[in-house]
């Protein structure tokens, strides 16, 4: 079972999940939704961009600069693979019954 | 959404999952099942023991020393909370439909 550290890191996992669900998202919306500092978010988004998992677009809205982020096809695939791995792990928990396994 | 680093780290997540499902497990079985080095496994189990998540028992089987590991109640609870968090994240992905959300 392989976990891709790019996706597995807790803050990035939540960024991936948010962008996967919501599509293109402006930076301030991500800050608010994920309850992270701007510096922390920038750092993780930068790493995701370096890995080819997100694209960044800068534009002006009401004369103010706005930066938006969107998962690339590769980013979506990486995230989907990661979720598949987690689901496999979770499904495995209910596999057999034994005395000490909980549930 | 909070991720407990004790549980979230990839190798430990798999140790938690294995012990949760299989109950008390001997060290060599864990090495084989998780495909990790003995040193790496020892290090992670040590950290889990320090955190009160596993108990360690040493006994002799056929005159050979054998070390077994088992999740404590606290370890089981931590793991269950973590799985709940992951399930919440995964369930959230299918929440609304929007144009860029993949699936």
List the helices and strands and how they pair.
Two copies of one chain form a homodimer.
Chain A: H1 5-8, H2 10-22, E1 25-26, H3 27-34, H4 38-50, E2 54-61, E3 64-71, H5 73-93
Give a verbal description of the structure:
Two copies of one chain form a homodimer. By secondary structure, chain A is α+β, with helices and mostly antiparallel strands. Chain A has a single domain (5-90), classed as Arc Repressor Mutant, subunit A. The first copy, chain A, is 57% helix and 17% strand. The first copy, chain A, contains five helices and three strands, in the order ααβααββα. Chain A has helices at residues 5-8, 10-22, 27-34, 38-50, 73-93, and strands at 25-26, 54-61, 64-71. In chain A, a hairpin with a 2-residue loop joins strand 2 (54-61) and strand 3. The first copy, chain A, is elongated. The two termini of chain A are 23 Å apart. Residues 97-103 of chain A have low confidence and may be disordered. The A-B interface holds A 1, 3, 5, 8, 10, 13-14, 17, 20-24, 70-71, 76, 80, 83, 86-87, 89-90, 92-93, 95-96, 98-102 and B 1, 3, 5, 8, 10, 13-14, 17, 20-24, 70-71, 76, 80, 83, 86-87, 89-90, 92-93, 95-96, 98-102.
């Amino acid at each position: 079972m392989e976990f891709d550290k790019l996706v597995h890191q807790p803050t990035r996992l939540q960024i991936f999940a948010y962008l996967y669900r919501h599509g293109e998202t402006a930076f301030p919306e991500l800050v608010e939704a994920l309850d992270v500092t701007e510096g922390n978010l920038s750092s993780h988004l930068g790493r995701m961009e370096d890995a080819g998992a997100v694209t960044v677009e800068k534009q002006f809205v009401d004369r103010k600069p706005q930066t938006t982020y969107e998962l690339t096809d590769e980013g979506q695939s990486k995230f989907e693979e990661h979720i598949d791995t987690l689901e496999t792990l979770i499904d495995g928990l209910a596999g057999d019954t034994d005395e000490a396994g909980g549930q």
